[in-house]
Structures are given as C-alpha cells and as structure tokens.
TrEMBL record:
Gene3D superfamilies: 3.30.390.30, FAD/NAD(P)-binding domain. The keyword Cytoplasm applies. The active site is at 440 (proton acceptor). GO terms for cellular component: cytoplasm. The keyword Thylakoid does not apply. Its main location: cytoplasm. This is Dihydrolipoyl dehydrogenase. Disulfide bonds join 40-45.
Length: 461
C-alpha cells in the first residue's frame, strides 16, 4: 500500500481529516484538483467574509457622524475590494499548504476517482496514476445548485463563485434564494450601492431560522433598502437584452424585474459524479453518499464526509466529521456527532446565529416550552456600540429546564453562539445559565438575561 489514508478533496473536512490522520501516525495523502482549502477557503466562507468586512467598513465611514466623528463620505473601489478578498483567500490556501508540509502529508494534484478496492486513480493534464491506501476518504464537497429554469451562464446569471469576482459592480441585482449565501451577497451588494431584490420561494427569508429572527431580519434589510419578495418564484430569465428580465410569479400575479445580474443562490449540489461510486458499489440516496455514524460507506475501506453526506453543508460540520472518521479508523472511540447541536451562522448585518430547536420545532417535537427573549435595545454594550438592532431568544424544556435552542440576531452574535453550543453539550439547565455570571458590559449578557426572562427573573426588562 502507498498510504494508510488517502483523502480526495482538500476542503475543511478533507484537510482536517488528513492532518488528524497524520497526527495519529497514519501515512496520509490528499488529492486536490484545484487549490488547497477547497471551496470554503478559496470561493466560500473566507473570501465572502472579506467582502462583508469591506461593506461593514464602508457603512462605518458613512455613519461616522453617528459616533461624533466628522469625515468625508466614503467611495467604493470595487476592484480593490475584490482584490483584497482574493488576497485573503490566497493567504489561507497558502496556510493549508504549510500545514500539509508540517504534517508530512503528500499533496497529489489532480482529479481523484475510486477504482478497485483500496485504489484511487488520479488524473492530471491527461496523465493518470493509481495510488493505493487501506482507507479512502471522500471529501469532494459541493457546488452551486442550478435550477432547470435558472441556468447559469456565468455572465448575467451567476452562482456564488462569479459573485465574488465580478469585473465591475452591477447597478442592480436579483438574488434568487434567501439562505445564508443569498442573504450575505444581498447585504454586501446593497451596502456598496447596488439595487438589490431578493426573491424567496417560501414565506420567510432565511427559512431555516426561527420565525421571529426571519421577520426581524426582513424588517432590517428592508430599512437598508433591499426589496424582499417572499412566497415568490422565478419562472424564467430573459438575458437577450442589455439587462436581464426576470419573470417572478407572486401571490398577486407575475412581475417582471430588470437587473444587470441575477444571482442564483438556491442551495448546493453535491460533487459525487465521476468519482467512481457506481464502479465500486458505494451506495447513494438523493444525491448523498450513505454512511454510518463514523462515515463508513457501504464499501469497506471507503468513507465519506462533508457536503456529500447527511447533515448540514457547513465547513465546521465537515471538519468535525473528518476528525471523527479518522479517529475511528485509528482505533479510537469517538462520540458520534450530534447534528442537533450544530451552530448555523449568517454574516449579514445584523448577523444571525442559531443552534438547536426553533420554538416551533420544539413544540412540534412534543416539548412544553419556556421562551426567554432579551432585546439588544436593553443592552448597555449594544447601546454604546450603536448596535441595538436584534435580540437573543432561548427555548427551554419547561419540564426539566433543558436548553433546547438559541436564536440570535444582532452585532457579533456569530461570536456568541459557541457559548450555547457548549452549554447544550454539557446539558445545562435554564437556572444554571441564569447563575452563570457574564461580564458587564458585553453583548453576551443578553444570553443570561434571556434565560432569566424565560423564568420571570430578568432584571433589565
């Protein structure tokens, strides 16, 4: 055997799995056809946050007078904003290259495909070579999903990848889909002056979030100037003219929207085609590879993690899966991942962060609930920071006090949600959370106050 472990794909799940395997003494290689770090580091999580930071800085400049600062109004250099984002992504990819060398992991450049049991064929520039390993981990990730009536041409109808590197800032944009990707790009482009419309098929934007969070975000984004159309469907897009004509079916009839760019943000499709699944007998269902709690597929010695398996398509989920997978391979006894304790974050402004049951889902699951909600308008730190928009909402089991879920919208809440994930992991009760002393003044105090509000003990409301 050439290796103990070969990982196909170097996104967060792939490179984390490879590093952990090396730490555990396993001879490891990573197969990557493009850039180390995969979509997340190069075309997803990291460069989008760089774009959003530029938008935030621009907003600070334009609202400096609110903080008693006199300054000239800002001007967006779109090309420079994009260049900075790409620079950040390139730096992160080089960081992964360093980690590969540090951990003595071989990087095999090319497209990997399962062949026979324990072997991977890697093709690059027309040449192929077969490598062998006791364990092969598939971490091939996902790509922008295409709808039949919303084909992406990469110029006028685009996916998230093109949205990060447009040659010039569009004057107008229609964003189809209001999940995290759609909302983040809608916020970014609107903030720098593009006229943005968001079209969502369901009744609420960010439809996976608690309904109160969805409605709060919609109100805020509308105030910022974003046009939001819910319960609406894009029927077709005419790209023959200078601008796109987007036919949108609404509850009251069909509207035609005009925009320079249409961004399709309707989800992610898995990259499971052409990697040899059928040839070696790996079972799939509805575009996902079937795995057990330790990411073993139906074929011995073949594993799958990340976007191509069950669970949320999130970088931190893939990383956790990769660690669990290789620790099991190495003979350890890792605990299976609890997919109901995975934090989800959306990095618009205000930010959204959540974990666990929504209030509606908890009731549907049969729980009697206690709900506590604390608005940032009552937070001293939020007032001082000029960030009073939003709230923290906690959902508890009324019978035993178990913390079932948390839903936050506000400044920096994506940095606050980890406290709740840890608390739920340790099975904290509402009263224990109330008695956990939080520093003052901080935004995080709102967590303690929301818990207290659920039990009628809130001091500052």
């Amino acid at each position: 055997m050439d290796y103990d472990v070969i990982v196909i794909g170097s996104g967060p799940g792939g490179y984390v799995a490879a590093i952990r395997a090396s730490q555990l003494g396993l001879k490891t290689a990573v197969v990557e056809r493009e850039s180390l770090g995969g979509i997340c580091l190069n075309w997803g999580c990291i460069p989008t946050k760089a774009l959003l930071k530029s938008a935030q800085v621009f907003e600070y400049i334009n609202h400096a007078a609110d903080y008693g600062i006199k300054t000239a109004s800002g001007e967006v250099d779109f090309e420079a904003v994009v260049k900075r984002s790409r620079g950040v992504a390139d730096g992160m990819s080089k960081g992964v290259q360093f980690l590969m060398k540090k951990n003595k992991i071989d990087v095999i450049v090319g497209t990997g495909k399962l062949k026979a049991k324990g072997s991977v064929e890697v093709t690059n520039a027309g040449a192929s070579k077969v490598y062998t390993a006791k364990h092969i981990i598939l971490a091939t990730g996902g790509r922008s999903r295409e709808l039949p009536n919303l084909k992406q041409d990469g110029v006028k109808v685009i996916g998230y990848r093109q949205a990060m590197v447009l040659p010039k800032q569009p004057k107008s944009m229609v964003v189809v889909g209001s999940g995290a990707i759609g909302i983040e790009f809608a916020y970014f482009y609107n903030s720098i002056g593009t006229k943005v419309t968001v079209v969502e098929f369901l009744d609420n934007i960010v439809p996976l979030e608690d309904e109160e969070v969805s409605k709060q975000l919609a109100r805020t984004l509308k105030k910022q100037g974003i046009n939001i159309m819910t319960s609406s469907t894009v029927e077709s897009v005419d790209t023959t003219g200078d601008v796109c004509k987007v036919n949108v079916k609404t509850a009251t009839g069909t509207e035609v929207l005009e925009a320079e760019i249409v961004l399709s943000a309707v989800g992610v499709s898995t990259n499971i085609e052409g990697i040899g699944l059928e040839e070696v007998g790996v079972k799939t269902d509805k575009g996902k590879v079937l795995v057990d709690d330790y990411y073993r597929t139906s074929v011995e010695g073949v594993y799958a993690i990340g976007d191509i398996v069950k669970g949320q398509a999130l970088a931190h989920v893939a990383s956790a899966e990769g660690i669990i997978c290789v620790e099991k391979i190495a003979g350890h006894h890792p605990e299976p991942l609890n997919y109901n304790n995975i934090p989800g974050c959306t990095y618009c402004s205000p930010e959204i962060a959540s974990v666990g049951y929504t209030e509606k889902a908890a009731k549907e699951a049969g729980y009697e609930v206690k709900v506590g909600k604390f608005p940032f308008s009552a937070s001293g730190k939020a007032s001082a920071a000029g960030a009073k928009d939003g709230f923290v909402k906690l959902v508890f089991d009324a019978k035993y006090g178990e913390l079932l879920g948390a839903h936050m919208i506000g400044a920096n809440v994506t940095e606050m949600i980890a406290e709740i994930v840890t608390a739920r992991k340790l099975e904290i009760t509402g009263h224990e959370l109330i008695k956990t002393v939080h520093p003052h003044p901080t935004m995080s105090e709102a967590i303690m106050e929301a818990a207290a509000e659920a039990y009628g003990e809130c001091i500052h409301l």
